[in-house]
Amino acid sequence: MEKKEYGIYAQRRQELVASLKKEYPSLKTGAVLLSANYESDRIRFLQDSTFYYFTGINEPGMQLLLNLDGTSVLYLPKFKQNRSLWVKGGIELSPEWKKQLLVDDIRFLGKAGMSYSPTPFFDQALWQDLLANLSGIINKAGKIFIAKADDGLSRFGQTIVQRKLMQLLPTMEQNVCDISSVIASMRRSKSNDEIESLYNACDITSVAHEAAASLIEPGQTEARVRAGIEYVFTEAEARPAYPSIVASGHNATVLHYSDCTGELKAGDLVVVDVGAQYEQYCADITRTYPVSGKFTARQRELYQIVLDTQEYIADLAKPGLWLSNPDEQDASLHHLACKFLKERGDYDRYFPHGLGHFLGLDVHDVGDHNKPLEAGDVITIEPGLYLPKEGIGIRIEDNFWITPKGAVCLSHDLARSVDDIYELVQSNFN
Ligand code: GLY
Ligand code: MN
Ligand code: MN
Fold it and tell me: Which atom of ligand 1 is found nearest the CA of 241?
């Protein structure tokens, strides 16, 4: 049995129950229904972030029912075949697992239906035990609290499941209540343990950047640089948090270019925007390297402007300011960055994307952008300039933990200044 501490997830479940009880003081019956993601034989399984946040479980097809009295039942799919013949591990209906996961009960969703892999397509018999439980809650005028998935992958499976449940339990729809915003506000504020996990993801990503820089030289391919990055991720038991971007020359002006089919040419820049996802937590770090080991005068001028913008904003970032708020531009990091770029020579024209986003279990993590920054937030600060006519794209992105005193960079050891970037790229020449 896997050795892992599940106390933190039980604690989060109790916090969620406490905040729902506060919000619905007169509600006697109700339960939160959280859904795991589903597998596909085309992409590696990735758990739904919210399900992981409240369970720590990294397996597909499960449902967690968390009652307002604080008790929880984990529902497992029942298979016709022995799943462990096909995939490693698995949680079983056993007192040991119940004790370790700190749930009050583990049950099957219903009858055995699927061969060895869960699917979101089911009929009454396959989910009859969970359906009976939900129907008991609804009959007592209780609420079923659900969270809308925040990424396309999770949304697909969960929407199918939720629609099917409402078809099988026609009275469910009027009792369903979306608590995505309550969950997002919990997930937005990171505990010290989560900060440590984010540091680990950033450390692996920094090593990957050093590997990338060591491969950069004229004639090299974007694909080989990406291979060097993902070698580091794989060896560290991490995975890319999003499709790795290695974009040279004109490709660097395409914000989410991920083809990696170009060749690095002397005199070009290469934007490397990569992040490790390690134990579910994501890093998102970008550097811009000169293929020849040195910037041209023009590239250097623009690089310095981007770097100065990032440093200016990182010095300002603290609780009370906004990531972006068009109605409070003097306290909005995005608008302050645009103003800074404008004052440096109307360069805000070449900055087409947002300055940053929340970071955590998802690379574009949940969190209400309409609320100002608070201690415990983790954000990216990623100014960039893109001049397609000159074939120049530059972005510098680091990850910052907002503390009462200001922003702490989680990736501060990775080269960023012009001289340090030169040294890193040139170290592999000769
Ligand atoms: N790598 C995606 C982003 O920077 O938001
Ligand atoms: Mn990025
Ligand atoms: Mn980013």
Answer: 1
